Prior knowledge:
Layout: H1 23-56, H2 60-82
Helix pairs in contact: 1-2
Amino acid sequence: MDVKKPGASFQEPLLPSSRPQGAPEEAKRLLRLAGPIVASCVLQNVVNMASVMFVGHLGELPLAGASLATSLANVTGYSLLVRPHTPPTNLNAWL
């Protein structure tokens, strides 16, 4: 019951032979893919830290307010990014 499919061969590799053979090559590929994402996250945190540091010169109460506002902005910003991009069935869900 051997059924041969046209174009299928057992000698052909499923992945190209140009894939990395060792850990250093794999690490280079991962860093090239994940590097920009890591850099953007770090730079976003630096911007938040710099704004809180500037307010820190004004005193403890403004520093606490700026820290709380930054935390709230981060949480609400992430919740808006996670929200699906489909229109809601109930408009009150978006309010």
